[in-house]
Amino acid sequence: MTGKVWxxxxxxxxxxxxxxxxxxxxxxxxxxxxxxxxxxxxxGMIPPAAELIYVGKRSSHHAMDQEGINHVLLEQAxxxxxxxxxxxxxxxxxxxxxxxxELLAENNVPFEVVPGVTSAFAVPAYNGIPVTHRDYxxxxxxxTGHRKAGHELSIDFEALARTGGTxxxxxxxxxxxxxxxxxxxxxxxxxxxxxxxxxxxxxxxxRISGTLETLEAEAxxxxxxxxxxxxxxxxxxxxxxxxxxxALPLNGVKVIVTRPRERVSSLSAMLRQEGAEVVELPAIRTxxxxxxxxxRAAINRLEAHGxxxxxxxxxxxxxxFMDMLTAQSDLRALAGTKLxxxxxxxxxALKQYGLRADFMPTVYDGETLGRELKAxxxxxxxxxxxxxAIGNQELIRELGDGLEITDLPTYDxxxxxxxxxxxxxxxxxxxxxxxVFTSAxxxxxxxAGAEGADFTKxxxxxxxxxxxxxxxxxxxxxxxxxxxTLEALVECVKSAAGKQGPAGPIxxxxxxxTVFRAFDAPQGEGRGWATA
Length: 532
Fold this sequence. Notes:
CATH class of the largest domain: Alpha Beta
Strand order of the largest sheet: 3-2-6-1-7
CATH architecture of the largest domain: 3-Layer(aba) Sandwich
Number of strands: 24
Structural class: alpha/beta
Distance between the termini: 65 Å
Radius of gyration: 28 Å
């Protein structure tokens, strides 16, 4: 049975610029054949089970030549696989996409083209440069600046100069001198605004501005690196006024988010909204325990009013237990039973089932939950705790003697890696500014997936004391969010990045803890913990 090939444009860097159709194709891929210019955020979207084939091309270094790529696509499709050919930008704009389809068409292999957002337009937009503007130009022209070794540029500079339009040169950094001198020799004014746009739509985006006459010297002074594009035209003068991307609070900040795959999107979206480049590297995954007999037995006892409290320590614990409860019984089984949660995440997860928490501690950790819940319990109260099989023992210790405690494992936690991204190499590159951790297990999972990395160079933004303690064991520089909420985590990243005043690494050896409560807030809201 013959498979199918999807030729997918991944956009210029920001994963938000990949189309919904492209994401849909990628999510069902058996094999992903990908380029060097695909952004880290997009690589993080590749399904963990997909086979990866890297065919990246950089100047003077090709992992695989074009003919080899064409045959790989054909072979994988003839093997009956769903193949995504993932290319930076748009596959048909100097991406040699047409060449890759020729062999497939000759062999009657089904294919589909998913256009991508081209860097020719997106990167100028991210730098505040509109490639067309009624007051400045009537056309835009996209030209390849790439030249074969030993050959001159094959560009009609006189024709381009006559257009009076915006000129966008892709793959032209190595030929910058020839481009600017060619345009001036063709009659274009030396004072025409121009810019080199480096690593566009990423955290490390740079704009080097000048004129045709000065641009080469400015680019040399800035030590411009690829990938970069060249824009020439009066619209370049608008960049300072229209530079919206640079105004975002987390512009220039690259963040690794380590939450489980099924829970990563909300935090990532909040960080991206503030301008951060987010790379999703789920460090753990969770799965319901194989032996569900103890859970079914606990539900039977719950129906018989056999528990006074049910205590949830994570959103995952809520979901797994409540799904089994509603599959076996219904919410009436909880009648007369009080519900406690460790924090906002678990409270929100419980609310999705139409339930409100009766108790949430002033500090969102196991120690405080156990101590404060113990004060509310009567001697002999029966407490059910559905949670991870490797649950922290602080909660049990604080609840102490005098209560009947059922510590019920409902899910197992496994470390996870993202095959298309090398976490250790990402850290070694120096491009990553912060790693965000929402539990101690995500720290341990991340460390396992980045084996050999120098963790002393990692700035860790952590959601609580236990998470921060785990990060500090590895030598990471630790920042701790004021509250154990996603919103507070984002604010902590902003503060640590210097966007909202000074912040420095926090040492758990010297920190003092202050518990506070907003007395005007209703039960279960407006509470958290802070450092002082």
